[in-house]
């Protein structure tokens, strides 16, 4: 089994849940409500409320009136 990506609006993060173990790991977002591009937990998401995954595994997240593109390496960029 793999991982499940979830948006956690109240924690301002995108996290991965290991399906086998149930362990939740922050993927992108510092936990601070904001709108800062960056990598991993250096980025800030503002109440992420939805996500889509493209064929190339790029993740798109709705966050505080913007769309954020997130690479598989966790690089978050506002588009």
List keywords for this structure.
79 residues; mainly beta; five-stranded antiparallel β-sheet; three-stranded antiparallel β-sheet
Describe this structure as you would to a colleague.
The chain is an all-beta fold and 79 residues long. It is 0% helix and 44% strand. It has strands at 3-8, 13-18, 24-28, 38-39, 50-53, 59-62, 67-70, 75-78. A five-stranded antiparallel sheet has the order 4-8-7-6-5, with no helix packed on it. Strands 1-2-3 form a three-stranded antiparallel sheet, with no helix packed on it. Strand 2 (13-18) and strand 3 form a beta hairpin.
Helices and strands, with pairings:
Blueprint (H helix, E strand, L loop, with lengths): L2 E6 L4 E6 L5 E5 L9 E2 L10 E4 L5 E4 L4 E4 L4 E4 L1
Antiparallel strand pairs: 1-2, 2-3, 4-8, 5-6, 6-7, 7-8
């Amino acid at each position: 089994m793999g991982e499940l990506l979830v948006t956690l609006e109240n924690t301002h993060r995108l996290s991965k849940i290991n399906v086998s173990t149930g362990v939740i790991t922050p993927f992108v977002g510092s936990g601070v409500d904001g709108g800062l591009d960056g990598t991993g937990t250096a980025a800030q998401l503002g109440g992420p409320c939805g996500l889509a995954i493209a064929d190339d595994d790029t993740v798109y997240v709705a966050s505080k009136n913007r769309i954020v593109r997130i690479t598989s390496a966790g690089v978050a960029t506002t588009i």
